[in-house]
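User: I'm writing a short methods note and want a consistent example. For Trichocyst matrix protein, I'll paste the sequence; you return only the structure tokens, no commentary, since I'll be parsing the reply automatically.
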Amino acid sequence: MKTLLLFIVFIGIRAVRRKDDEQFQANKEILHNDPSFDDLEEIAENPLGAKVLQTVALQIKSGEGIDSIVSLLTNLKSDLEGKQIQQDGSNAAIQSQCKSDMDSYSQRIQLAVNEINDVEFKVGRLESDIEDYTGELELKQSQIDTFQGAENSLRDLRLKQSANYNKRLGQLKEMINAFQVMLPKMHELYDKVQQRDSESFIQEEAFANSFVQLANNGPSNPILALVQVTSMMDSRSIQTIIEKMEVVRDSLITSVDEETALEEQAIRDNDVTLNEIFNAMQALTREKAADDESLQDTIRTRDQQQKRGSDAQAEFVASKTGMKQRRGQCQELLVQYQQNTIQRSREIDIIKKVQIIIQTKLNVVKSFIQEQQIS
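Assistant:
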């Protein structure tokens, strides 16, 4: 009787357990089909979501109430939101600095471009000035060479004119000296002839001997020919010849004076011309020296401008390179910020979903934790 009773109790317990198991399976299937269960599965795939569910599992096992769990999740969400606010501020500061850096690079690039354009304009103008100064120097050197050639020609001409003058003057003086020698002889001859005309034959022979002696001055003496011709003339003819000879002599003396005056005037005129050429060459030399100094100053200024242009070009390249690098850095920081913001927004959404599910579907959470063996 007792055994039968125990058997009946056992059968009853098994029936209850079977019914509870059936009810548990039915409840489990209901919970598993709940949409929140799918949400929890999705949440568990996220690293932070998995950690949150582990935290919730520990809280549930430790007997913490819903309010305590929700408060913990709220604090975790607030911490993430605080980090996001902090990162928002940091990103705003970074983007502000990036904009400032971009503006600075843009300003440097514009200044470099302005410098390059200004240098190109000034170098072009300086190159034109250099060309003008070079042309002026070549022109002045050509003028100096022309004056130098004219001076050399004048000096050569003066030497030739002086030589011709000295030659003419020597010839004139020789002729005058000849007349100066001949005229006294002719006067002596005239006196002899005049006496001959009035004296005897014996005296005439003496006169003839005197004439021969007068003429005997050597074969090269021009007087000989004259004496030979005039010794046979009468005194009146000789007087006429003497007068003509004196006229010629006086004319030769006048020619010497005139030649000397002309030579002296030519020397003065030549000196004046040479002095004018000298002054012109000196003036051109001074102008040429001033132009050359201006040319060298202009070349130095052009070289300085070209150095300035080279520096500006280097600054332009450096600014463009720096701007490109900085833009890349800023873009990387912005992308990182955006990715972090998206990730943090997902994490905050996960916590919010877990909060909502815990507050509305705690059994689903417990069932999910138990089934997934989250601890």
